Amino acid sequence: MKTLESVITSVTVFRDRAQITREGTVNIIKGEESVQYKRLPEAIEQNSIQVKGSGSAVLKDITFKKEHFTMAPNEMQKELYSRKEELDEKLLSVSDSINQANKEKEFIDNISKKLTGISDSDSTVELDPEKWIKMVDFYRRKNEELDKEIRSTMKEETAVKNDLEKVMNEIYDIDYIQNKTLNNVEILLKAKEDGAVTLQLTYIVYGPKWTPFYDLRVDTGTKKMELSYHAMILQNTGEDWNDINLNLSTAQPQRGGEQPALIPWHLEVFRPSRMKVGAAAPEPIAMAANMYQMHDDDLKEEAAFDDYPESIEPEEANIQTNTTSVIFEIPGKNSILSDNNEHSATIMIREFNAKFRYSSVPKLSEFAYLKTKVKNETEFPFLPGKTNVFMDNNFVTHASIKNVSPDEEFWTYLGVDEGIKIEHKFLKKYQKNNGFFHKRNKYIYEYLIEITNNKKTEEEIVVWDQIPITNSDNIIVNLIEPKYEKDTDKLRRNEFNFFEWFYTIESMKKVVIPFSFSVEYSKELEIVGLD
Fold first, then answer.
1. Bridge partners (DSSP) listed for residue 186
2. Is residue 267 one of the residues assigned to a domain?
3. Sign of the CA dihedral 244, 249, 255, 261?
4. Which of 132, 200, 255, 396 fits a 20 to 30 Å CA distance from 266?
5. Residues 399 and 295 in one domain
6. In this predicted structure, what is the pLDDT of residue 277?
7. Are strands 31-40 and 2-3 parallel, antiparallel or unpaired?
8. Is 169 left (phi over 0), alpha (psi -120 to 50) or beta?
C-alpha cells in the first residue's frame, strides 16, 4: 500500500471546527491499488471524510482506520529527562542547604540558652561584660548570616521548582503525543491504465475557531468612522496550515439544522407552601435590555489586546453568500501554525458616515457615554464581537458590536467623554399623610439631574432614569415630575417605567431635570425594594 504525500491546500474555519482539504498526487499501475493518508488529526470527524480526484482511475472504497502506536523516544525527550535529573539533584542539594542552615541556627540557639541559663547547683554566676558583648555580637552576626543564607536558598529552591514544573509539563505533553491513536484513511482505486492520480481529501476537525473583532477609528472633525473588520483564528489540530487558501464561515453547525419541537403545555393549580426561613428570594427580571437603543453589554470594558499598531491596509476578503451563511475568502496565501496562538486576518476595512450622540444613566454612572449610529452599507454581515475604539488616532476604550446585517443601522459605544458633566442629586424623601387617622403611608422622593456641556460644540444626549413598578393593587406609584401624558420627541416612557429624555445642549450650557415620584401603600404592609 502506498502512502500518499499530501499538503493542506485550503481551510474553511467555522466557529468551533474547520474543514480541511488536502491534495496529493500518486502514481498507480493498472488495476486495483490502495493508497493511504497517514497521521490525520486526532479530533477528526470520521463521518465528514470525502475524496475527490482527477486522473484515469475510479474511486471504489474509502476506509477510516485507527492505529494505536508508541513512538520511540526522540532527542528532545532524552534532553528533557536529562534536564529533569539535573533539576532533581539541584533541588535535593538546595533542600539539604536549607536543612543544614536551620540546624546551625538551632545549634547557636542551644549554646546561647546554655550560657545564659542558671543551673540548680550555681546560685550565682560571675558575668564578664566584655565576654557577654562578644558573645551577643557573635550570636547576632551569625544569625543574620544564616537567615540571609536561608532566604537566598529558599528563592533558589522556588526557581528550581518552577523550572522542574515546566520540564515536567513538556515531558507530559511529549508522552501524550508519543502514545496516541493514529488516524489513517485508505482509498481503493481502480485504474484503467498506469499513470498519475491527483486526490483531494476533505474532512472536518474539531477545535479550530475564529472570532470577529473590530477596530473603530473615529474622526470627530469629519464625523467619519473607519471600521476594520478582523478575524482572530486559533488552531491546535497537530497540523500546521502553511500557504493555504483561508475561508471563514458564518455558519454554526454546532447549533444543528432542525428546529426545536414543542411539547404539551400543561396548567396546574398552584398549591402554596410555606417558604423556609433563609430561603433565597426569586431572581429579579433583567429589564435593562428594554431601554430604547440601550445596550448595557456595550458599557462593559474588557481588554482584548494591549497594543494597537498602525499597519499597511490589507486586501479585502471576497464574500460568498449561501442560503444560510456567508463565507469570507481571505485574499492571498495564509499560514496558521498549530500552536493555539492568536492569528489575525483582515476581512474588510471601510469608512462610514457617523452620527454622534451621548447617553447617560446618572443614577448608575456619573459619566456620559459617547455612541455613534452607522449604517452598514456593505455586503458584509457584522457578527457580534469586541471593538477597539480609537478617537482621533488615540486609543480610548473597548466596547462591542452586536449582530448587524447589510443595510442595517446600528449603534455602537465609543467610550466615556468627560467633556459632558453628569450630576445625580438626591434632594429629599419625606412622608405626606392626609390626617391623623389616615391608614396609608405616602412617601415623596425628589431628585435633580444636571447635565453640563463643557465642549465647544453643540451635542445631543439621551438621559435615562426610572420609577418603581408594582404588580400589587395595594401599592400605588405616581410620577410627579416631569409631567408625562404620552411619548414625545423629548420624553418617552416604556412598560418598565424607564424614562428617556432627549436634549440638544449648546456649548457651555447646562440642562436641569427635576425628577420626583410618590409611593403610597397601606401602613400594615412592609415594602421590599424601596431605598
1. 36, 63
2. no
3. negative
4. 255
5. yes
6. 39
7. parallel
8. alpha
d(CA 414, CA 370): 5
Q: Which of 1-5, 138-142, 171-175, 477-481 has the highest mean pLDDT?
A: 477-481
Instruction: Indicate the pLDDT class of residue 304, thresholds 50, 70 and 90.
Output: very low
- Which parts of 220-266 are beta strand (E)? 224-234, 241-249
Residues 59 and 199 in one domain: yes
> Number of structural domains, the chain?
3
> 407-417 as b/e, with b when 16 or more CB fall inside 10 Å?
eeebbbbbbbb
Same domain, 221 and 340: yes
The answer to the question of residue 171 being in a domain is no
- Per the document, the length of the chain is 531
Same domain for 462 and 393: no
Which of 223 and 128 is assigned the larger pLDDT?
A: 223
pLDDT band at 505 (very low <50, low <70, confident <90, very high): very high
CB 36 within 8 A of CB 3: yes
Closest CA to 343 of 243, 474, 235: 235
Tens-digit pLDDT profile for residues 194-246: 888 899 999 999 999 999 999 999 998 888 999 999 999 999 998 999 999 99
Distance CA 93, CA 158 (A): 13
Whether residue 214 sits in one domain with residue 345 = yes
Specify the pairing of strand 209-219 against strand 385-391: parallel
Distance, in Å, from the CA atom of 26 to the CA atom of 29, rounded to the nearest integer, reads 10
Q: Does the residue 202 lie in any domain?
A: yes
Q: Compute the distance between CA of residue 38 and CA of residue 33 in angstroms, rounded to an integer.
A: 16
Q: What is the pLDDT of residues 457-474, one digit of tens each?
A: 999 999 999 999 988 888
Please state whether beta strands 195-206 and 475-481 pair in parallel, antiparallel, or not at all (unpaired): unpaired
Task: Find the domain containing 321 and state its range.
Answer: 209-252+288-352+377-405
User: Is 430 found in the same domain as 401?
Assistant: no
**Residues sharing a CB contact under 8 Å with residue 59, sequence separation 6 or more, in sequence order:** 51, 53, 187, 188, 189
Handedness of CA 18, 19, 25, 27 (dihedral sign): positive
State whether 387 and 325 are in the same domain.
Answer: yes
| Residue 1 pLDDT | 79
**Arithmetic mean of pLDDT over the chain:** 82
Closest listed residue to residue 335, CA positions, set 327, 344, 324, 347:
344
Assess whether 456 and 309 both reside in one domain: no
Q: What is the pTM for the complete model shown? A: 0.64
